[in-house]
Amino acid sequence: MLKALPKRPLEWSIEMAPSASSQYQGKRFTEVASLEDWTKSVHTKTPNYAEEITLDSRILASDALVFGLRMNSGVSPNELESRFPGEHWIGFHKLIKNLNEEGLINTSTTNWSLSPRGRLVADAIGSAILESASAITH
Prior knowledge:
Helices cover 46% and strands 14% of the residues. The protein has helices at 35-44, 57-70, 77-83, 88-101, 116-120, 122-134; strands at residues 21-24, 27-31, 49-54, 105-106, 113-114. The chain has a 3-stranded antiparallel β-sheet, with no helix packed on it. A two-stranded antiparallel sheet has the order 4-5. It starts with 20 loop residues before the first strand and ends with a helix.
């Protein structure tokens, strides 16, 4: 049994399956997609990652925003900004303002959430958030 569970979602997760991603100690590891290659790595107890990324405030903020918007209660931008500060929030605020004007995101409470129309295009909204974060260079 795990003794220390994360206090907040996305602090860490361990996944084990082809193409699965795990976050641990400031990195994201993505398993290989091939079932054969993945099975071999499990049997030999040798990691075989397709991708390994060092997580920064920009990546964590965009992930938390994408997943938080999908929750019924939405996500608190103030809490996320304090947890994951940085210039990426300039782009996020502009994007959220545009999506709100299009009727895709609700910003009338302290939380941001997807509108019924926004839920229909949630993947496209998530992609737009990730693109916005990627546009920022360190």
